TrEMBL record:
Domain SAF intervals: 49-109
NCBIfam families (alphabetical): pilus_cpaB
Composition-biased stretches (Pro residues): 180-197
InterPro entries xrefs: Pilus_assmbl_Flp-typ_CpaB, RcpC_dom, SAF
Family matches, as Pfam families: RcpC, SAF
Region Disordered, annotated ranges: 176-200, 302-332
Name by which UniProt lists this protein: Flp pilus assembly protein CpaB
Length: 332
């Protein structure tokens, strides 16, 4: 009996040892796949960000084409970086960049110059509430420019007003511009606080064909310009040509073909041409061989060569000089 009990106890001990070994083996097997899986599995990929880089070196001012760009991915976000090549096509660099350099917005040209079309120049004019149509002009509008030359300019016999330039595009009016607000400013459509009047516009910037720039400059310096707002769909333009060819300020050498717009701008415009007066060699007096005065003496009493009008013999110590519509006593 004791032997049976002893054998049974030994058997139970062996079974317990076997169960413990089996449990230890199971625990090792359960732990090993997790460790192996963690070691064998790749770590989570770090996020990458697309950035457009140059495939070749570019100089400042050079236009960007699609062939000059490729997209790469970097491990950190770059402030101002461009991620789409299509955004850069047609843009120009403000600074030179080497091949492989990423392109950021601060390296691109911007400003009003990019809104000026080929063959145009941006010209600024002084405006007030009357000339600026009650400050109702907005960037992108189309306007006609009229000029008034006053009688007392001492250059014309009579005052006149006429259409000077037609269908000019407004690039900027005051601080508003087609290229957005100026640097450091933010566009805001909110009205000013009560009691605070907005700063009135003092200038308007127009896109002017280069051959018409002299007319605008001379009109502003020698006359009074007025803007006339027009509908964007209105196609009306002058069709008649002036009977008198405007006299240029500078005689150019003969050309074999038509003059370019830049050549016409170089020739400029004289005030008599702006006023529509005949050139000296085409006036009737010149055709008859008579001496041609610059202006009629009766029209310009104060012009050079015109004799001052003397008063009565008793006033021999002074003469009366008439300049335009002004009379002046000059002692001698």
């Amino acid at each position: 009996m004791n032997g049976v009990i002893k054998a049974l106890a030994i058997a139970l001990i062996v079974i317990a040892i076997a169960l413990a070994a089996f449990a230890w083996t199971l625990s090792r097997r359960a732990a090993t796949p997790g460790v192996d899986g963690m070691a064998g599995a790749s770590a989570p990929a770090a996020p990458t960000f697309p950035v457009v880089v140059l495939t070749q070196s570019l100089a400042a001012g050079q236009a960007i084409t699609a062939a000059m760009l490729r997209t790469e991915r970097i491990g950190f976000p770059m402030a101002g970086a461009v991620s789409e090549p299509s955004v850069l096509v047609g843009r120009r660099l403000a600074v030179p960049l080497a091949a492989g350099s990423p392109v950021v917005e601060s390296q691109l040209m911007s400003g009003l110059a990019l809104k000026v079309g080929e063959g145009e120049r941006a010209m600024a004019l002084r405006v007030d509430e009357q000339i600026g149509i009650g400050h109702r002009v907005r960037p992108g509008d189309l306007v006609d420019v009229f000029v008034t030359v006053r009688r007392d300019s001492q250059e014309l016999v009579d005052s006149e007003a006429r259409l000077l330039l037609s269908k000019l595009r407004v690039l900027a009016y005051g601080s508003d511009s087609v290229d957005g607000p100026p640097p450091g400013a933010t566009a805001s459509s909110e009205p000013p606080p009560p009691g605070v009047r907005p700063e009135p516009a003092r200038t308007v910037v127009l896109a002017v064909p280069v051959d018409q720039v002299p007319q605008l400059v001379l009109g502003q310096q020698s006359g009074l310009l007025s803007l006339a707002l027009r509908h964007p769909d209105d196609p009306t333009l002058p069709t008649a040509k002036p009977l008198i060819e405007p006299a240029p300020a500078l005689a150019l050498a003969p050309a074999s073909g038509p003059r370019s717009a830049a050549d016409l701008a170089l020739a400029g415009l004289s005030l008599s041409g702006l006023a529509g007066e005949l050139p000296m060699d085409r006036r009737p007096e010149a055709r008859r061989g008579a001496a041609v005065p610059a202006f009629p003496a009766a029209a310009l009493p104060g012009a050079a060569g015109a004799a001052p009008k003397r008063r009565a013999a008793g006033d021999s110590g002074s003469v009366e000089v008439i300049r335009g519509g002004q009379r002046e006593q000059v002692a001698y």
